[in-house]
Amino acid sequence: MSPDSSLCGQEERQLQPPWYWILAFCLLCSACARLPDLKYLKEPLNTPTTPRVVDGRGPLSEPEAASLLTRRLGRAKVDAKYLAGLEEAATGRPLIAGNQVTLLFDGPVTIAAMMAAVSAARDSINLETYLFDQDPLGMRFADLLIAKQKEGVQVSIIYDCVGTLGTPQAFFDRMQEAGIRLLPFQPVSPHHKLLGWRINNRDHRKVLVVDGRVAFTGGVNITASYARSSLFRSARKAKAVGWRDTHVQIEGPAVAALQWMFLDNWASQNEGSLPERDFFPTLAPAGDKVVRVLRSQPGSNHEIFKAYFVAIQGARTSIHIASAYFVPDVQISKALQAAARRGIDVKVLLPGVSDSWLTTYGSHSFYQDMLDAGVRIYELKTSVLHAKTAVIDGSWSTVGSTNLDTRSFLHNKEVNVVILGDAFGREMEDAFQDDLKDSREITPGTWQQRPYLQRLKEWCARLASYWL
Questions:
Q1: From CA 97, how far away is CA 116, in angstroms rounded?
Q2: 123 tagged catalytic
Q3: 388 included as an active-site residue
Q4: Which of 211, 247, 276, 442 is an S-S bond match for 377, by CB 3.0 to 4.6 Å?
Q5: Of 77, 81, 192, 204, which residue is the catalytic one?
Q6: Selected catalytic residue, list 364, 386, 413, 457
Q7: What does DSSP say about strands 345-353 and 376-384: parallel, antiparallel, or unpaired?
């Protein structure tokens, strides 16, 4: 890594002249990208009769794929099979069979599982994260990574420079001096890469791949907010609770897709190649889960955005969404409202306690239209909701880093995993219903009584919704 590439630490930030921020503001205001018009997804597409399915050996034949999907989706769920084909046509990503997918709730469970996998690493550890704080949890994680590097395991880390603005550069220097390869994504200073500098484009993914055999992704960052549990599935009361989040642990052929995503991101930054390791070992089937690994990034085909739209539009019974930041574009917003109007059970779980007041008011600006259409809105009490999940019709589930907002769909690097099947869907539904127990419903009557000053704040936040 070149010396200039570590420009997002605290010491460097103190040296930045004010014109950097003026230039950033000008670049932000110079042009607005747009999400694609998805009207074409409302018309019949040239969808495959049987969606494409691959496993560790390669593509399955059409009869094999059809038989597998019948077992996973159920013989009566013709719509689910059709929607899987439509999702493939929209995103270009195949289904991947033979995986074990474990739901991980809250920080302590997720961090413990990740640290256990890291401790067992023998060849490589690839970590991509938005937040990596110098706090007790971050120090523990960094110490473990340094120890594994000293054991001969190659550790490589991509971290976002806006997400780590509050992290001293010395924290990362210590890891680099131990031999860990570091790639700071989009440094705040334009000195490093002036022509390719895009301060508004961020790496919001959370991905950990160990030995190319086990992977983690979801909403959990490496920060002290995840050192404590939330009140999820707990009868206790606590003065200090952690953020409520969801992650998944994956074993099986789908791990290779997440590994490729990390390596492709590293290569795209032109910061030198990684040492040769066995990044893609042969992956035998590890379970019965069929998944689709989706990614988005600026200038891409917006596959996560399209997958959400297809799933919402094709819903037959229920749409249950949890989102930390809910500032949807007009197409997702209208799709949710249309689903509610046609009798679908649409419930959206949002934070009642948030770390971003501006985004909160931006979310509130959508409440009235949603409530008028019949969408039921809930706000999680006490804990900060940071999960980004959805379960539709009890058989289409997704967990990832993507919020339902324009920033996630258009400007960030994001990752989501779609898991098909009733068994995993039941786990997701059970968790969603448990979260509702710790939430309050926003009813049309109570919402109409909110103060006019709050309405003004919502209106102002709505004007800035593109940037939230």
A1: 25
A2: no
A3: yes
A4: 442
A5: 204
A6: 386
A7: parallel
Instruction: Enter the pTM of the model.
Output: 0.89
The pLDDT tens digits of the residues spanning 126-175 come to 999 999 999 999 999 999 999 999 999 999 999 999 999 999 999 999 99
Q: Which of 388, 411, 413, 457 is catalytic?
A: 388
Q: Is 373 exposed, middle or buried (0-12, 13-18, 19+ CB in 10 A)?
A: middle
The answer to whether residue 393 is catalytic is: yes
Reply yes or no on whether 386 is catalytic: yes
Asked if residues 214 and 221 have their Cβ atoms less than 8 Å apart, the reply is no
Which of 55, 203, 211, 329 is catalytic? The answer is 211
The one catalytic residue among 206, 247, 320, 457: 206
Based on its alpha-carbon atoms, the radius of gyration of the chain, rounded to whole angstroms, reads: 22
Q: Can you read off the two tokens belonging to residue 272?
A: 């030198």
Residues sharing a CB contact under 8 Å with residue 401, sequence separation 6 or more, in sequence order:
130, 204, 205, 206, 217, 218, 219, 388, 408, 414, 415, 416
Q: How far apart are CA 384 and CA 347, in angstroms?
A: 18
227-280 pLDDT, tens digit per residue, is 888 888 775 566 677 899 999 999 999 999 999 999 999 998 888 889 999 999
| Dihedral sign for Cα atoms in the order 179, 277, 123, 417 | positive
Catalytic one among 245, 393, 435, 438? 393
User: Are 378 and 257 contacting, i.e. CB atoms less than 8 angstroms apart?
Assistant: no
